[in-house]
Design goal:
InterPro entries: ArsR-like_HTH, HTH_ArsR_DNA-bd_dom, WH-like_DNA-bd_sf, WH_DNA-bd_sf. The chain is α+β, with helices and mostly antiparallel strands and 199 residues long. It folds into 2 domains: 65 residues, Orthogonal Bundle (Arc Repressor Mutant, subunit A), CATH 1.10.10; 106 residues. The chain is built from 11 helices and 7 strands. Helix 3 packs across helix 4 and helix 6 packs antiparallel against helix 8. The radius of gyration is 19 Å and the shape is elongated.
């Protein structure tokens, strides 16, 4: 049996993992060292060292204000999207979708909007946070989404389509489906090329 990949096993430094888990979903926020220490419950020198490491690879940028140094994510970093995807698949809604895949029915694709994973504001009412294609156990999906909504304190927009309906909508250039196809996304389940293919 293949062992489940988790960020805890992928990243050696637990402090770095805690920093990434805290900062990646909040790309527009500024963090100072003592605030991060309080939030993640870790020793200050370890946090300082890991912030320096993350800044050295270009994932973070810093600015000094008085005697404080503030760190923000560099969303243009070559590593940002992949790390955000890993966090989205390891924690929260994405992780719960993956963990409950068997109970969700025959899911062909499950996609999270990158804006949702990064907790950015939606640009229009057409945006969908979670899109699922297949023969889906709707009650189970609703339960997973409801629990995440309670944790976040905000509504999650999601849509479900059967595979035939989805493929037909792609071929007919259905505006709703095209909007989903062109938005930045994190693939939770399924192959991205097949998801976007018109054949």
């Amino acid at each position: 049996m293949q062992e489940k990949l988790s960020l805890e096993k992928l990243l050696v430094s637990q402090v770095r993992l805690k920093i990434l888990r805290t900062m990646l979903p909040r790309p527009s926020e500024q963090f100072h060292i003592r605030g991060l220490v309080r939030e993640i419950g870790t020793e200050i020198n370890a946090v300082r060292r890991e912030l320096s490491n993350l800044e050295s690879i270009g994932l973070l940028v810093s600015r000094r204000s008085g005697n404080r140094v503030y760190y923000t994510l560099n969303i243009h970093s070559t590593h940002y999207s992949e790390l955000l995807g890993l966090v989205a698949k390891t924690y929260g809604l994405g992780a719960n979708i993956i963990a409950n895949l068997r109970n969700l029915g025959d899911v062909r694709y499950a996609v999270l909007a990158k804006a949702f994973a990064g907790k950015r504001r939606k640009s229009s009412s057409l945006d969908v946070d979670l899109f699922v294609v297949g023969k889906v156990n709707i009650d189970m999906l609703e339960d997973i989404v409801k629990k995440e909504q309670e944790l976040r304190g905000t509504e999650i927009n999601y849509a479900v389509m059967g595979e035939d309906e989805f493929n037909y909508a792609k071929r007919k250039n259905d505006q709703f489906v095209i909007r989903i196809l062109v938005q930045s996304r994190i693939m939770l389940i399924g192959d991205e090329e097949e998801f976007c293919s018109l054949t």
